[in-house]
Request: fold
Amino acid sequence: MSATGTGAAEAPRYTKKDFESDQDVRWCPGCGDYAVLSAVQKSMPDLGIPRENIVFISGIGCSSRFPYYMNTYGFHTIHGRAPAIATGLRVARPDLKVFVVTGDGDGLSIGGNHMLHVLRRNVNLTILLFNNRIYGLTKGQYSPTSEQGKITKSTPMGSADRPVNPIAFALGCGATFVARTVDRHIAHMEETIKRAAAHRGTGFVEILQNCNVYNDLAWNVLYDKEQRLAHEMKLEHGKPLVFGPVDARQALIMDGVKPVVAPAKETPPDRLWIHDESNLNAAKILADLFAPDYPVPVGVFAAVSAPVYEEIVLDQEQRAIADKGVGEIAKLLKSGDTWKIE
Amino acid sequence: MSETAARAVTAPKPRRDLARAVVRFAGDSGDGMQLTGEQFTLESAVAGSDLATLPNFPAEIRAPAGTLFGVSSFQLQFGSQRVYTPGDRLDCLVAMNPAALKVHVDDLKPGGLLIVNTTAFDRRNLDKAGYAANPLDDPTLAERYRLHKVDMTALTLEAIQDLPLNTKEKDRTKNFFALGLVSWIYTRPLDPTLDWIKKKFAKNATIAEANVRVLKAGHAFGETAEIFSECYQLEPAEMAPGLYRAMTGNRALAWGLLAAAERSKVPIVYGAYPITPASGILEELAMHKRFRIRTIQAEDEIAAASAAIGASFGGAVGVTASSGPGIALKGEAIGLAVTAELPLVIFDIQRGGPSTGLPTKTEQADLMQALYGRNSEAPVVVLAPATPGDCFFIAYEAVRIATKYMVPVIVLSDGFLANGSEPWRIPDPSTLPPIEVHFRTDPAGFFPYLRDPATLGRPWVRPGTPGLEHRIGGIEKQDGTGDISYDPDNHDHMVRTRAEKVRRVAQEIPPTSINGPATGDLLVVGWGGTYGAITAAVERSQADGKAVASVHLRHLNPLPPDLGHILREYRRVLVPEINSGQLVRVLRAEYLVDAVGFNRVRGLPLATEDICDTINQLLEGH
Ligand code: SF4
Reply:
């Protein structure tokens, strides 16, 4: 039983249809979740993993209905706990490919603690965090990623709390793969999901998702053609960090320890910031950037290699067995101090 | 030790036969009283005594020295007859400092043996214990008890004065002086402790030598000092022949899981968050990776339960443990296991509450939490071990039931069982009932909520099985297909089905064994760690010719099918519990019997004497 081998060699050839379950999809018409579901189903055949070895685990929320719609193994669990449940599953079954589907409330509010620990442990699984900056299933209260001052039914005079940034949070927890993609950028989403799924360790993907009912166009900066053109900055390993329209290309550079935006044309090549996915410090700086003062980075912020939690657990077990053989209860019972009564 | 050696007498002192004795070692947290007690226990077990122990220590790890709340003690009762409890009143108290004397002396029987370390009775320690004057100078103490003032620290230092150790290191061995002395008084063999020293300090010959010398000095002191006029010996208890070992409840729970993993051939994943008094199980299991037990020290109680559930979904047996506060946190997750119909074993090592309560003390007040402490209708199986050794069989049984019925099983142990130990006859694991786990692999006609007609359990499918891909979750499901269902009648049906599944576990319960006459004036019903106290009390009443019997429940949900009938065979029913009356409520509700409770919630085991008094009062019609 290899910890990462999920039977890639003998995987049959699948199409998207093979991953569609027979359940009626029950999201609101126009919800961004549909696009994500479609992208995930489309990405699955390319993973080269037999369908029966794939498990989707979710918590509670609109996005957490996801497993019902995937024709794989699936477990729709309790609010916020999917990372912990998935950790137990991986420890029991390191031969399975495990996905966690969660949202901004599920993953960063009620389940924030588990998110922290699954990331720092680097459990080998893929986390898709749908960030729509609102509580959808409970009908529109502000979420931990909502902007401060957000007017919702539970905050008629505006929310008092400051938002958490999922990317910065994940990097702060020691995540080894952190990426951002957008529900309306289908090709980018598929590509990002596939890369995350192939990562050895926890692959964390923030998917900016539209809740058209309770928080429509929260990510308009990346939907609206002009705004997107002005602000979207694609992160590509080994390439300079530039963005903006062709005729007004901007470069993101460092001025001392502060990121600044400068016209690309006037920036000498040796001052350009070349994106390096293995540089976690750089990723942490990029994580905090957002429009309007900065570009909005999308893509892979960081991808580094680190020991995987359950592989260490399993390795210790194998070493203990190699050392002294498989345990025998009959022997253990008689070990240590014993005495006979005739 | 030159002086005492010089006074060596050639004629051995008289040995008096004794049936049983209750001894308590008490001192500062740093005085090594737990170790002293454990070694004395081992010596007594090897001498063939039956015994029961009661460790009692403060919640603070390094409580300030010399204070009343920093006192740590270890009590045991040992005897030549069956010993059920650590004993109520003490025959012998060893007090290593004034605080220990103050906290414990009232538990000593009048005329009991009181051994004090006089060195520790200095002004500072007396102040800390709140003694205005030195109690050892008060003549009433010597009148009430057989007081022996021993300058233990001085005698200890003298025995090892030539060893290259500093005073602190030397001082630390004085507990073995006390152990040697008490071992002499009760004719306990020193060999088990000498062996222990050899193993423990294999890498430090000087420390080993110091401990050996001090232990022997204490022993010799008893033999030679004129103050001890006699010592005691006990016939070995009549115990079933076999190989024995000392067993604590926490270790027994852990080993029961190992046995279950071996027998079922299904790996166990144990998720836990450190909490007193359950952490010992996690630590014990972590040492036995060779048994394919995988332990996860989770980030919190909820994650611990969740990880266990995830493992069960994956086809391993998920186990989680905690004490009361942690079980409260796990409630929602346990509900998920109820509705997902997955096996899950939950150990609750009960302690004093509510909230943080008395973390290191025992209690039985989580029964209602185990039965009902979740949202909505979420029935689970509830078991409770009766003795430390019984924890082994209960843990095994919990895995067997959980996997057979696809149901969560809560095991209610407690702080007393967890840390207490008993001489335990080592069972032959091949005599344990088999744990037969069948994973469904056949896709033909498969639905996730099809049911076994005998157990109502649903099929357990390991992800990775081709053709059986399916989704389950916390939303109500259509019986059979497992599809999401909001249908009112289906929900009502599922609520009843989940309850019926738990009820069917009754078919696993053997006929209830009754200790005493099958009909009579009084039946005493108990559960959990009060087994010893209740049994001892009932046997005492029976010896007095009273028509009293007892029944001890190991299955609390479902209850034994023959229990209702048994309850009606007695005029009165008494239910002693370390809570304000939980099982008694269940019995009254379930069987409409006029059962009465005996309840003390002091963080301590029930006293046999108190139960005896209550039995007498009830029989006299009070
Ligand atoms: S409430 Fe919002 S997030 Fe939920 S399904 Fe509807 S549109 Fe999607």
Remarks:
- The pocket of iron/sulfur cluster is lined by residues A 27-28, 31, 33, 62, 132, 136-137, 211-214 (CB under 6 Å).
- Residues 312 and 318 of chain B are 5 Å apart (CA to CA).
- Chain B touches chain A through 72 residues (CB under 8 Å).
